[in-house]
């Protein structure tokens, strides 16, 4: 059963963005947040991201470096393809394309020679300043969404909504890719159709 406030859905389970925009206008809801959700659930966005991800994976195969772990290369390629698919409409996608968020997650800055820990007095002073729970959660969310550490709450929520929807689409596409690859790997090379050689899916 589909309720009246649920998104417009096509027969294949993909959202119909045109019908969804009409529904949002009639309800007068948060257009930006809800349209970002529906945009990432369209078959068009799935196809765009799939194509960009396949191209990125092919480039990794051609330029595989022994210095950089392949798993890290795939992770970076998957996120960059997601950011390119976003089209630069969001701060998180621009941050990923600039490489800031990925580098920040992969490195840990430490002072030379190990450094000294803050004095007990300074640590006690910091502990005495209690940050409100809501502010703590907002800061935590800002660290999770690339490029959004210093955004005000309304803008942060819009970015987080779009980022989560994009990640959900990424999971769906990569799960589908893994399923296709597992089935393709079990087929003998001699019995594979010629069209597979031109497929963007790596063997």
From TrEMBL:
One of its GO terms (molecular function) is transcription cis-regulatory region binding. It is found in: Nucleus. Residues 44-98 form the IBH1-like N-terminal domain. It comes from the Eukaryota. GO terms for cellular component: nucleus. Keywords: Nucleus, Transcription, Transcription regulation. Its main location: nucleus. GO terms for biological process: regulation of DNA-templated transcription. The keyword Transferase does not apply. Belongs to the bHLH protein family. This is Transcription factor bHLH149-like isoform X3. It comes from Cymbidium ensifolium.
């Amino acid at each position: 059963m589909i309720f009246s406030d649920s998104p417009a859905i096509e027969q294949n389970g993909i959202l119909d963005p045109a019908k969804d925009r009409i529904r949002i206008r009639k309800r007068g809801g948060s257009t930006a947040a809800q349209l970002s959700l529906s945009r990432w659930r369209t078959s068009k966005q799935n196809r765009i991201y799939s194509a960009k991800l396949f191209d990125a994976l092919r480039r990794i195969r051609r330029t595989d470096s022994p210095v950089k772990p392949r798993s890290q290369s795939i992770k970076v390629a998957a996120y960059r393809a997601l950011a390119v698919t976003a089209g630069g409409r969001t701060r998180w996608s621009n941050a990923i394309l600039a490489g800031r968020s990925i580098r920040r997650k992969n490195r840990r800055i430490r002072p030379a020679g190990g450094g000294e820990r803050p004095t007990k007095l300074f640590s006690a002073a910091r502990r005495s300043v209690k940050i409100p729970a809501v502010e703590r959660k907002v800061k935590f969310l800002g660290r999770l969404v690339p490029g959004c550490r210093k955004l005000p709450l309304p803008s942060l929520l819009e970015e987080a909504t779009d980022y989560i929807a994009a990640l959900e689409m990424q999971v769906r596409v990569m799960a589908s890719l893994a399923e296709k690859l597992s089935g393709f790997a079990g087929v003998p090379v001699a019995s594979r159709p010629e069209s597979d050689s031109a497929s963007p899916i790596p063997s």
